[in-house]
Amino acid sequence: MNEFKETQPTENLFLKKADCQELIDRRKIAPEDFQIIEDLSHYPTEFFVAELHNFFSSNQEKSAQAIKDRIKQVNETLEKYPDATITATASLKEAIPLLVLFLEFTEKYGWMAAGHLNSLLENR
């Protein structure tokens, strides 16, 4: 058995997809931020649908603040209901890191780029 091969991280094919490359080129995503996209691509599609579907189209330039508000709301909900879920298989607690990553991306690239990325992540 080759332990070295088993311990190597798997290659992220999401970043290599043509539509992701279009996002990177069109929105001028800096190479140092590819890791954010890669990290987000590891979340199940259902997280993006549950937390961010239509989010960017309705909040436009206020998207970053709206994400901050959602993080606060999730934390408040978890204080009252620690086992709250957002889908049948995902806890609300698991949504916080996703929202924090998306906030970082949104603050840096704006609501149009974030909406574009969310669409790609929902439809993969």
Would you summarize the structure shown here?
65% of the residues lie in helices and 0% in strands.
Keywords:
124 residues, mainly alpha, 7 helices, 65% helix, globular
Task: Give the helix/strand layout.
Elements: H1 3-7, H2 18-26, H3 34-41, H4 45-52, H5 55-59, H6 63-80, H7 95-122
Helix pairs in contact: 3-7, 4-7, 6-7
What does this structure look like?
The protein has seven helices and no strands. It has helices at 3-7, 18-26, 34-41, 45-52, 55-59, 63-80, 95-122. The protein is globular. Mean pLDDT is 87; it is low at 1-8.
Structural class estimated from helices and strands: mainly alpha
Major beta-sheet overview: none
Low-confidence stretches: 1-8
Q: Work out the helix count.
A: 7
Separation of the first and last Cα atoms: 33 Å
Shape descriptor: globular
